[in-house]
Amino acid sequence: MIRKTRLFTPGPTPLLPAAQFAMAAADIHHRTAEFKALYSKVLAQLKEFVGTKNDVLLMAASGTGAMEASVSNLTSPGDRVLVLSAGKFGERWTSLAKAFGCEVDVVSAPYGKTFDLEEVRAALKPDTRAVYMQATETSTAIRHSVRGVADLLKAADSDALLVVDGITGLGTTHLDVDGWGIDVVVGGSQKAVMIPPGLAYLSVSERAFTRMGTTKNPRYYFDLLKERKNALKGDSSYTPSVALIAGLGAALDYIAAQGGGNLAEGRNKLIENAETCAAMTRAGVEALGLKLFAPDAPAAAATAVIAPEGVDSGVVVKELKARFAAIITNGQGEMQGKIFRIAHLGYFDYMDTIALVGALELVAIDTLKLPGVRLGDALTAAQKVFASRRPDEAAQQLAESQSSLAPMEVTAAR
Ligand SMILES: *Cc1c(COP(=O)(O)O)cnc(C)c1O
Predict the structure, then answer these.
(1) Where is substrate bound in this sequence (predicted)?
(2) pTM
């Protein structure tokens, strides 16, 4: 059979065709009225997508660039910060904060777990200037309680800024940014917004902008106060990634169309979509007798699965690619060879998910030779999950049929 290559990786994720067309057509200069209009539109859309009244800034960088900006702009050498770490991306916060001379306190949880809020409360000191965490830790596929941490900071009447790496949390988990008081939320283009890597974005509270006026760490390219000043005029400080910004605009139009033209509603649909794909996958995996790596609070962004006893998880990654051209990811760092990860964030649907579950089922039977597994076991479990969520799907389809323009037509009309 022919094999269509499909990404099931938690970044980069599958590309939205409408965004690809918009990127191909984006030969405009960045110091023109045409670009300013596009840039202002996309920045306004991002606020709705993130779900905040705070300003959102865009930068030409992968997500880590905006993580770095959240450290360099918000801290001075010697500042005490608290990092909540339960995986490779949590460890990145620690490395970044140390690189900028911060005194780093760390509350950590074992890989596959989330941290204990009591430990977080105990680690919070009167002079803690900022708390850094992930919404979802992509390396282990656990979901953290951003709300729990935000509530705790409020209850402690802490001056610490709350900075959330929402790079795979945005579009897969609900964040009430202004209600909970999240000062910074970081996102990246190659995740739920369905476009290639290269753009980082972040929402920044007034409190955080004020802090930047007194912090001493060096910054030049990632100068958020400067970027904000320019963004208000529809400009970026340096040459922006014009094509990616055009693609992002088309992707946010598509997400809005999923919510009948309302972007916040569309984002909620996107979250529900990821939740459904994730629940189908988890059911399929468990029906094969495999164990989830982060069962306590599994993220909708991705599912991490423990390889069976004595089997290198790379075998599953290799077989899915060789037989079905399905690209999944191995574990990172110490988790390599022990787990494999399947993504659900962004442009994944029922067809993608059921196909991956079916392919995994064949690998489980033919390659892993898992005992007692029969053809159809994983698919049946995934189908049951989907069927149980059908009323929601039907409501979604009805809403779509009532919106005046289909997503592709919206783009063609632009
Ligand atoms: C992908 C990802 C990042 C950013 O990685 P980049 O390669 O810099 O885009 C950071 N945090 C999380 C949780 C991620 O999933």
Answers:
(1) 341
(2) 0.94
Strands (E) in 157-290, as ranges, are 161-165, 184-188, 199-204
Asked if 381 and 283 count as a contact pair (C-beta separation under 8 A), the reply is yes
Q: Are 176 and 147 in contact (CB under 8 A)?
A: yes
| pLDDT > 70: percent of the chain | 94
The minimum-distance atom of ligand 1 relative to the CA of 137 is: 13
For residue 82, what is the enclosing H or E element?
strand 80-85
pLDDT in tens, 305-315: 999 999 999 99
**Amino acid letter, residue 241:** S
Ligand 1 centre to CA of 89 (Å) is 7
**Tokens found for residue 69:** 């900006």
Domains and CATH numbers, the chain: 6-10+264-403 (3.90.1150.10), 17-258 (3.40.640.10)
Amino acid occupying residue 150: A
Lookup result for tokens 């991956």: 356
Contact 104, 90 (CB under 8 A): no
Token pair 């990172």 is found at: 332
